[in-house]
Write a structure and sequence with these properties.
The strands form two sheets. A seven-stranded mixed sheet has the order 6-5-8-3-2-1-9. Strands 4-7 form a two-stranded antiparallel ribbon. It has one domain: Protein of unknown function DUF192 (Jelly Rolls, Sandwich). It is globular and about 40 Å long. The chain contains three helices and nine strands. The protein has helices at 2-20, 49-54, 130-133, and strands at 31-36, 39-46, 66-76, 79-80, 89-94, 100-106, 114-115, 120-127, 142-143. 20% of the residues lie in helices and 35% in strands. The protein is of the alpha+beta class.
Amino acid sequence: MFQRFLVCLALSVSLCAAAQTPPPPQTDLPRARIMAGMYQIDAQVAQTPRQREIGLMSRKEMPQTEGMIFVFDQPATQCFWMRNTLLPLSAAFVADDGRIVNLVDMQPMTENSHCSTEPVRFVLEMNQGWFARKGIHAGSKLSGTLFK
């Protein structure tokens, strides 16, 4: 009986550890070219629920000209957090026409919620400070095939 208990306990601990292990980085998603003024962004496109859930988790670095754009089916208030995300990021919440609704800076490995100020279908994550360094702010327009 005690051995069965130990086996169950070991199995439970193993399953818990597996559930806590962050997924490997996503580096093979489709890409889209996005223009922010005169700046070109090579963005990975996360459009399935699982791709959006993993996002940039476990990435240790990201080139300055790269980012990840999250594509949702319908405009809604989108909220993001940074669980298992190692990089400090800035997120642009983007309307269908490419207008940046609002920007937020997010700290690594936190569970603080960062939300759009109005319903959006797109969220573009870049290395933290990228938008500020390029003079891109709320109201700026992004262009590319994703935007109407």
